[in-house]
């Protein structure tokens, strides 16, 4: 440590201006330059001396941080009256100000209103010192309990992955070495372990990549994976919570990683949307865990995530199931991992961008994949949107126009084009609102962006209005503003059950959502098979809710009614439940659900008028519009 | 004799305070003056009697066969001093006390001669003592009035006339100056020479750089060549070994002559010679070079400020030198570690195990040899014959065993029988006691030997005691209530306790500054605490009140510890002196002076005959309790020492410092025998397991590490040559010796304790 300090060793003295300032403060004006110089040297020396003594007190106080009391004690042993009245806080009490060519450091003392002090309730009495015992080690092995640090800190995981040859500290050897591969039989691992123990002291071997999970860990792994893909939403929430927060999961990380990548591989082929969503949520949870060093497993995780974004088909009935939500979610995950893991060496972001762009540019690309590519790109941030997406708006608009206005080729294509359109509008509007100069001329937009121009124009106008509104409200509705995204919930339809019977489960969702309130939205799927309902819950504040309601009230008159009332399924497809004005919603005033129901065509026995499904484009449009009307607001509010 | 010594010091002090020339000066100045006088005195004697020091000191020793020579010399020096200052009464008292016959002292040659040879070191010792005695004005001595009346010797007045006489005297050596511009040239010339010599000599001669650099710099500063000094510093400070960085930083701040006044580090450099060990060949090379070049400037410095300990034989290697250097004043002189140290354990008193339980007795029989197995080489079976290395049972008087102590011993044996044999393949479990909500305020921790109580010292001046067993802490009833108790009843000990006061923890208020050291008495009846306020307090754990405040250290007391046999305790503090106390004396019995910086930690040897002190001057000293002599000086640490631990067999010692290294020492030979690297921050806690097989170290870096000391001690090959010269090759095997490393959750480890069954307890405050 001495070596580090070495270069700093120099004879720094206080500036003479300080001396002058100090002299002035005690009423000595006109201090000569020479006296100042002499004084500053002397003062600097004394200060250093005191600081050196104060360090002693710090060492004996068993601290790493020098406190004002140390200075006081150092002064005391020099027979100098300590400087009373300085409390050590976590910050240095000096503030810096400059102006008029002068630089000042001053002690910030706020004016305190006495009545505030009197009227505020007394703070809680600080807790008294108490003693708590725990096992730091049991016969040489550190138990993984909350009182102990996670078995391998992130740095160590990193060190081990980057320098596998470095010797592992014996204390952590038992459970410390991280494994790279997997699939070694436990017997083999055991043998290795024994061998190693015997050899210990003779040769320090490269830590084996094989690894054995303890019985508890195996049980944990089993429980967690089962809960994550199982049918009970509450259990899943708990499991994901555990993955996202528990330290010391790193030993299971390779297994989780394989579980996810294999799971995606299998379920994409089988078009099992629900499971894919679960797996993506696991990825999300893993990424949220601050103690995990994921870099080593990106090669498994990224392909899985990208698959969920761009795969041609993710569900059995692409026309009805909302695989779009999954694509959105996965795209956000991708963006997040790009942000966290992209470095100059692995170049994740640019590689991903290239992949997306390439398949987007391909003429033959399906609408689903197209959607995924655009979503993936646009989640990467406004810069990417600006450089890659906006220039192609015209071309893309033409293509959409061809599908929507042209002869009906296939319903699936139409839905796809529609989704792509709304996606483009959603993402581009906010970016354009920020970059394009003001006059929002519908015609000009048409010239610039082609088919999508007019729609874009109205979106931009809305986005601007929204932004302005927020600028006004910025102080009050903090929560609403910062909540960037809506949260997705995919709920099942009970096989024969009426919608009413499902209501509780849907209503229950928000409470479980609060547990895993996470940056990108989290689709959840409470229970078994066919997915028909997507519940979008945003915890939007009163103001934005109001807006949405007014926007949508024309189409969705059932806004304030419960889901049960929405059993008149055929056309609404979209139910907006607003707690604020709702008759039933009084108990949960801030939640708003948009239930997009996409009843299955013929097979659905549930919705009596299933035949009506092929949504009259207007009604679907209404539904989509609602979504949109909500989203620009949200996206302008979102940080990026 | 020591008692009188302190009295004399006191007298000196009183004289100073009342003396006309410097009557109303502040404490600081007083202290310095006393220092000056003593050093004046020493040097004066030196000058006067330098002709015949050898013979006279010999005479002194021959006349006092009981006491070691050095002690005698000190005494004689003091006598001489008193006499010159016409303090005849004190002289008489001292003589009586010391049992010296009058004739000896009357032959002035012998007395002053003794002082002459021991002059340099003794004077510092005295200075240190006086320092700490400043506050003790309470003792009235008949001599005092006479003292005030006594005329101040002319010499003192002469120097006292100046503002800061001591510094001037101390620095006077720097007054001879050469051309300041030549300093870099000289230094460079020497540097070039040393770089050009053979490899084997280079490492040894490179040792000269640092002290030379420091002294040249100080000379420049002293002679007001500020600019040159700065340039010199900038040019060459980078060449110095990195472990001197701390001192260099202090030096770099010192740019004016005025700064040198009162700077302790600087005084250390001047008052104590920097000790270097150099082989004869290398030394000859250096000498020849300097003489050829007529490089008197450097030669003078070497002559005056350096002590070169020349040895015959192979020059040492760089690593050997690096292992031993690093202290403030160079290495220890070889003679400093020659005294025989009785490191063996005392014979355990025979205790009849009560006949109530046959099984347990059998267990004890089994238990004892088991316990002693690892120690057999050093001490054999302790109950049968006396260990040759052990001190005499009565070398220092120890308190008699009480019945309760005997009971405790029996308990101890029973527990020991259940002890786990530790080893590299059988690591101890560690139970960690975390202090929650301490807000960085925990400064000291101690755990009783039977692990039933934990005490914590806090920065808010409180001492808190916790019971970690279900047995709660209770106070003794008040006197009025006690009188109602039937004293004949069997459970009288139980009855005297006040049930109403039962609680898991108790707070002891009394200090007025952070509590830096804390120690339980072996019988768990008392608790010692030392604090920033300069006192050591003795607390009763029966009444939970303060019994005594030991005042003596006038400055913060960094550490204190009870003797393993109780009654005695040791304390050490910022005043650079360690003191030995007995609980029933309000004044220290011994003062261990010699460290050049704060005494940061103090530990008793298991046989209670020795005390080890670690210091901020980066040395460890071992002191003989019997006569107060320093019997070992151990150098090698590169930072202030913050923890010490003796192995249970008394043969080895471990020390930990801010440099994050643990060093192992063989006390008998005074040698470093191991270096354990691994920690990254200050080591605040060290403890050997009950059998000495494992060393646990706890550090600021939030880890507890376990080390295989059995292996560490085995690996050392000690032949006669290394033992004689002290040139040891340290095996680089820290990684092999490290048995385990356990990280806590942001909790620095500040105390470690092995229970009687070899469970490791650790303690620290959670520091979020």
From TrEMBL, chain A:
Keywords: Nucleus, Transcription, Transcription regulation. GO terms for cellular component: SAGA complex; SLIK (SAGA-like) complex; transcription factor TFIID complex. Residues 142-184, 602-640 are annotated as: Disordered. Signal peptide: none annotated. Residues 12-76 form the TATA box binding protein associated factor (TAF) histone-like fold domain. Transmembrane segments: none annotated. SMART domains: TAF. GO terms for biological process: RNA polymerase II preinitiation complex assembly. It holds the Pfam family TAF6_C. Its main location: nucleus. Residues 602-620 have a biased composition (Low complexity). GO terms for molecular function: protein heterodimerization activity; RNA polymerase II general transcription initiation factor activity; transcription coactivator activity. It is found in: Nucleus. The keyword ATP-binding does not apply. Belongs to the TAF6 family. This is Transcription initiation factor TFIID subunit 6. It comes from Esox lucius. The lineage of its organism: Eukaryota, Metazoa, Chordata, Craniata, Vertebrata.
Automatic annotation (TrEMBL), chain B:
GO terms for biological process: transcription initiation at RNA polymerase II promoter. It holds the Pfam family WD40. GO terms for cellular component: transcription factor TFIID complex. GO terms for molecular function: RNA polymerase II general transcription initiation factor activity. Keywords: Nucleus, Repeat, Transcription, Transcription regulation, WD repeat. SUPFAM superfamilies: Taf5 N-terminal domain-like (SSF160897), WD40 repeat-like (SSF50978). Residues 178-306 form the TFIID subunit TAF5 NTD2 domain. It comes from the Eukaryota. Residues 353-364 have a biased composition (Acidic residues). Its main location: nucleus. Residues 15-70, 103-128, 353-407 are annotated as: Disordered. InterPro entries: LisH (IPR006594), TFIID_NTD2 (IPR007582), TFIID_NTD2_sf (IPR037264), WD40/YVTN_repeat-like_dom_sf (IPR015943), WD40_PAC1 (IPR020472), WD40_repeat_CS (IPR019775), WD40_repeat_dom_sf (IPR036322), WD40_rpt (IPR001680). WD repeats lie at residues 435-476, 508-543, 550-591, 592-633, 634-667, 676-708. Residues 39-62 have a biased composition (Low complexity). Belongs to the WD repeat TAF5 family. This is Transcription initiation factor TFIID subunit 5. It comes from Esox lucius.
């Amino acid at each position: 440590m001495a070596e580090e300090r070495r270069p700093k060793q120099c004879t720094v003295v206080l500036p003479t201006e300080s001396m002058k300032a100090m002299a002035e403060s005690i009423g000595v004006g006109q201090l000569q330059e020479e006296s100042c110089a002499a004084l500053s040297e002397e003062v600097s020396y004394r200060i250093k001396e005191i600081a050196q003594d104060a360090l002693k007190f710090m060492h004996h106080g068993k601290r790493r941080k020098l406190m004002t009391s140390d200075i006081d004690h150092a002064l005391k042993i020099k027979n100098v009256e300590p400087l009373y009245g300085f409390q050590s806080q976590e910050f240095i009490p000096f503030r810096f100000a400059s102006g008029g060519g002068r630089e000042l450091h001053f002690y910030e003392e706020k004016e305190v209103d006495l009545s505030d002090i009197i009227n505020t309730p007394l703070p809680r009495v600080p807790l008294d010192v108490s003693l708590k015992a725990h096992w730091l080690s049991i016969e040489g092995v550190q138990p993984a309990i909350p009182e102990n640090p996670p078995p391998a800190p992130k740095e160590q995981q990193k060190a081990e992955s980057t320098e596998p040859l470095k010797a592992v500290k014996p204390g952590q050897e038992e459970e410390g070495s991280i494994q790279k591969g997997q699939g070694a039989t436990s017997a083999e691992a055991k043998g290795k372990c024994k061998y190693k123990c015997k050899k210990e002291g003779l040769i320090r071997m490269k830590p084996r990549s094989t690894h054995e999970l303890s019985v508890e860990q195996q049980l944990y792994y089993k429980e967690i994976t089962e809960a994550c893909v199982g049918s009970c939403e509450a259990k899943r929430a708990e499991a994901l919570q555990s993955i996202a927060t528990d330290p010391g999961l790193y030993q299971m990380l390779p297994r989780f990683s394989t579980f996810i990548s294999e799971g995606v591989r299998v379920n994409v082929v089988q078009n099992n949307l629900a499971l894919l969503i679960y797996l993506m949520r696991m990825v999300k949870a893993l990424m949220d865990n601050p103690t995990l060093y994921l870099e080593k497993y990106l090669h498994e995780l990224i392909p899985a995530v990208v698959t969920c974004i761009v795969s041609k088909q993710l569900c059995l009935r692409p026309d009805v199931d909302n695989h779009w939500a999954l694509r959105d979610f996965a795209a956000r995950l991708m963006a997040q991992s790009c942000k966290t893991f992209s470095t100059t060496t692995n170049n994740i972001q640019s590689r991903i961008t290239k992949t997306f762009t390439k398949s987007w540019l391909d003429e033959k690309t399906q609408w689903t994949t197209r959607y995924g590519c655009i979503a993936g790109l646009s989640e990467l941030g406004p810069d990417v949107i600006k450089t890659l997406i906006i220039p192609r708006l015209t071309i893309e608009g033409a293509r959409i126009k061809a599908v929507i206005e042209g002869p009906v080729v296939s319903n699936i294509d139409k839905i796809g084009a529609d989704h792509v359109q709304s996606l483009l509008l959603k993402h581009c509007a906010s970016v354009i609102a920020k970059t394009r100069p003001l006059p929002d001329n519908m015609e000009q937009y048409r010239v610039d962006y082609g088919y999508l121009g007019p729609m874009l124009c109205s979106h931009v106008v809305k986005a601007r209005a929204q932004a302005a509104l927020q600028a006004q409200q910025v102080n009050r509705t903090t929560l609403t503003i910062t909540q960037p995204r809506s949260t997705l919930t995919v709920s099942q339809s009970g096989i024969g059950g009426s919608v009413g019977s499902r209501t509780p489960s849907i209503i229950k969702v928000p409470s479980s959502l609060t547990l895993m309130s996470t940056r990108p939205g989290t689709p959840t799927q409470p229970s078994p098979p066919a997915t028909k309902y997507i519940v979008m819950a945003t915890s939007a504040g009163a103001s934005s809710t109001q807006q949405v309601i007014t926007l949508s009230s024309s189409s969705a008159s059932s806004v304030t009614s419960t889901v049960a009332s929405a059993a008149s399924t055929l056309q609404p497809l979209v139910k907006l439940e607003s707690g604020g004005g709702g008759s039933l919603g009084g108990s949960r005033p801030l939640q708003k659900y948009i239930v997009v129901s996409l009843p299955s065509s013929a097979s659905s026995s549930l919705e009596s008028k299933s035949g009506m499904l092929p949504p009259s484009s207007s009604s679907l449009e209404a539904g989509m519009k609602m979504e949109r009307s909500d989203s620009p607001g949200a996206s302008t509010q979102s940080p990026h | 004799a020591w008692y009188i010594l302190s009295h004399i010091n006191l007298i000196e002090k009183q004289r100073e305070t009342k003396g006309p020339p410097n009557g109303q000066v502040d404490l600081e100045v007083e202290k310095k003056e006393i220092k000056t006088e003593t050093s004046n005195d020493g040097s004066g004697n030196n000058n006067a009697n330098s002709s015949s020091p050898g013979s006279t000191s010999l005479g002194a020793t021959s006349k006092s066969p009981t006491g070691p020579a050095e002690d005698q010399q000190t005494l004689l020096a003091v006598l001489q001093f008193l006499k010159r200052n016409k303090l005849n009464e004190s002289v008489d008292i001292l003589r009586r006390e010391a049992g010296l016959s009058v004739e000896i002292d009357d032959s002035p040659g012998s007395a002053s001669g003794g002082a002459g040879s021991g002059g340099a070191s003794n004077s510092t010792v005295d200075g240190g003592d006086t320092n700490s005695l400043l506050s003790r004005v309470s003792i009235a001595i008949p001599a005092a009035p006479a003292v005030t009346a006594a005329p101040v010797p002319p010499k003192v007045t002469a120097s006292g006339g100046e503002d800061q006489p001591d510094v001037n005297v101390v620095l006077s050596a720097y007054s001879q100056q050469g051309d300041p511009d030549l300093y870099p040239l000289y230094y460079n010339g020497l540097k070039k020479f040393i770089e050009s010599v053979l490899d084997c000599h280079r490492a040894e001669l490179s040792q000269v750089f640092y002290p030379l650099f420091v002294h040249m710099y100080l000379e420049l500063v002293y002679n007001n060549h500020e600019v040159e000094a700065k340039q010199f510093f900038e040019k060459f400070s980078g060449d110095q070994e990195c472990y001197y960085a701390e001192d260099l930083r202090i030096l770099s701040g010192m740019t004016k002559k005025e700064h040198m006044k009162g700077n302790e580090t600087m005084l250390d450099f001047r008052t104590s010679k920097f000790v270097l060990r150099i082989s004869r060949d290398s030394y000859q090379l250096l000498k020849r070079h300097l003489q050829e070049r007529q490089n008197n400037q450097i030669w003078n410095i070497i002559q005056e400020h350096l002590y070169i300990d020349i040895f015959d034989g192979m020059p040492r290697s760089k690593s050997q030198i690096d292992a031993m250097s690093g202290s403030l004043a160079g290495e220890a002189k070889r003679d400093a570690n020659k005294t025989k140290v009785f490191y063996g354990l005392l014979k355990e008193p025979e205790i009849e195990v009560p006949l109530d339980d046959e099984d347990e007795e059998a267990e004890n029989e089994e238990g004892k040899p088991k316990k002693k197995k690892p120690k057999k080489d050093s001490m054999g079976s302790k109950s049968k014959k006396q260990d040759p290395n052990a001190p005499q049972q009565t070398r220092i008087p120890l308190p008699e065993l009480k019945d309760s102590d005997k009971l405790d011993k029996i308990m101890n044996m029973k527990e020991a029988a259940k002890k786990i044999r530790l080893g590299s393949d059988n690591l101890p479990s560690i139970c960690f006691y975390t202090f929650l909500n301490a807000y960085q305020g925990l400064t000291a921790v101690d755990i009783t030997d039977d692990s039933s109580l934990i005490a914590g010292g806090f920065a808010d001046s409180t001492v808190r005691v916790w019971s970690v067993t279900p047995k709660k802490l209770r106070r003794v009833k008040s006197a009025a209530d006690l009188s109602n108790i039937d004293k004949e009843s069997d459970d009288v000990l139980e009855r005297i306790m006040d049930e109403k006061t039962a609680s898991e923890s108790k707070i002891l208020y009394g200090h007025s500054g952070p509590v830096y050291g804390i120690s339980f008495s072996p019988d768990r009846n008392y608790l010692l605490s030392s604090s920033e306020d300069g006192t050591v307090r003795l607390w009763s754990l029966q009444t939970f009140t303060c019994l005594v405040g030991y005042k003596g250290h006038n400055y913060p007391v960094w550490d204190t510890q009870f003797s393993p046999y109780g009654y005695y305790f040791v304390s050490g503090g910022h005043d650079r002196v360690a003191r030995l106390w007995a609980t029933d004396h309000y004044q220290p019995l011994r003062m261990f002076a010699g460290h050049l910086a704060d005494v940061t930690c103090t530990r008793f040897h298991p046989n209670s005959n020795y005390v080890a002190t670690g210091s901020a001057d980066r040395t460890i000293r071992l002191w003989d309790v019997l006569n107060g002599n320093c019997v070992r000086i151990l150098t090698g640490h590169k930072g202030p020492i913050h923890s010490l631990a003796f192995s249970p067999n008394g043969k080895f010692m471990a020390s930990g410092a801010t440099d994050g290294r643990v060093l192992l020492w063989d006390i008998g030979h005074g040698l470093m025998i191991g270096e354990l690297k691994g920690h990254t921050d200050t080591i605040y806690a060290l403890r050997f397991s009950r059998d000495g097989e494992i060393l646990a170290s706890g550090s600021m870096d939030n880890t507890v590490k376990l080390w295989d000391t059995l292996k560490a001690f085995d690996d050392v090959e000690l032949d006669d040559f290394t033992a004689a010269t002290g040139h040891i090759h340290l095996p680089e095997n820290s990684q092999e010796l490290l048995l385990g490393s356990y990280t806590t959750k942001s909790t620095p480890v500040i105390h470690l304790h092995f229970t009687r069954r070899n469970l490791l307890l650790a303690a620290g405050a959670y520091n979020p």
